Amino acid sequence: MKDDQDHHHQQHHHPFHHRRFWKLSGNYLRNPKPAAYLILLILTYALGYFTASPSLSSNQITTTAATSSSTPTVSTTLTTCNCPPAASPPILDKNNDHNRFGPECANPIPPELTRSTILNRVFNGTSPYDNFPPPHLANLLLPKRVKGWGSNGAVFENLINKVRPKVIIEVGTFLGASATHMAGLTRQLGLDTQILCLDDFRGWLGFRDRTEYVPIQNGDVLLMAQFLQNVVYYNATESILPIPFSTGSTLQKLCEMGVMADLIEVDAGHDFHSAWSDINWAHKLLRPGGVMFGHDYHTKYDNRGVRRAVDLFAKVHGFKVKVDGQHWVIE
Ligand SMILES: C[S@@+](CC[C@H](N)C(=O)[O-])C[C@H]1O[C@@H](n2cnc3c(N)ncnc32)[C@H](O)[C@@H]1O
């Protein structure tokens, strides 16, 4: 009973009450134009709906633009849906821009030509040790001022014994603690090894807070001069040469020049991006059978930036990372 009453009540208030409907219909029949428009509109909509391309989902928008009748029609599809995201280039793909570092290097020059090539190309045929130290620096330098981090670790001896390198490249040298240590080790083995030390000899902002005495003159920190002095002190001027520029530009140039090494130590910038760039460029300079290694595999700096770079590099190229004390090694 309650249902009937409600039904009646609802009918009474319905906008299309039957009496009104017939009145309206009568009007349309007497004046057919609006009815025809309405029917045409419904048919157009239905036609569009049924002929729409089935490959387009409801949340893709296609816009078509023709600039003139003679130019081809340009069609763009904008996706505004929750579809799975388009696949991004895989990070482990060797051909991904992130993993590509320049073209192939030039043909390797013979190891015996390494020293003369660097002297000619970097120092215009002079030696950085000629007439060293100049009078204006002599009073500022200590006879020996060495400071390093893990610079005498067992890894140096292990790898030098194993590889017996003719050329070593050190990426990040500072005052030459590890370079002079390696020079001593190669000498003990009777090897005639050239060690190229890549460093801009600027250190890093704030390093003087943590490193006692490094001379400074007119705002210029004299890291390179003190490094040269240390090499002189250790009697290693015939086996060690600095290359005082940024690691990225230098590694790239050595690659162009075909200067290669049997052993490469990477120990410059310790944030992920610096380490990533240095490791990738350095590896291009490794001779077949050579070994690349570096310090600070365990350091927490930049959320373990060095380790992330080393591990990613190994993954991209299918290498294994070995750990020797604080150092990582890729053979
Ligand atoms: C940790 S120290 C190297 C220590 C050295 N291997 C040792 O054990 O005695 C890092 C060195 O890398 C250098 N360095 C950092 N980023 C560099 C860059 N982009 N170009 C050139 N040198 C850089 C700094 O000037 C600094 O002397």
Automatic annotation (TrEMBL):
Keywords in alphabetical order, please.
Membrane, Transmembrane, Transmembrane helix
Keyword hit for Lipid biosynthesis: no
Q: Which Pfam families match?
A: Methyltransf_24
Q: Does the keyword Transmembrane apply?
A: yes
The family database entries (InterPro entries) matched by this protein are listed as: SAM-dependent_MTases_sf
Q: Superkingdom of the source?
A: Eukaryota
Transmembrane stretches in the record are 35-52
> This chain belongs to which protein, by name?
S-adenosyl-L-methionine-dependent methyltransferase
User: Which species is this record about?
Assistant: Spinacia oleracea (Spinach)
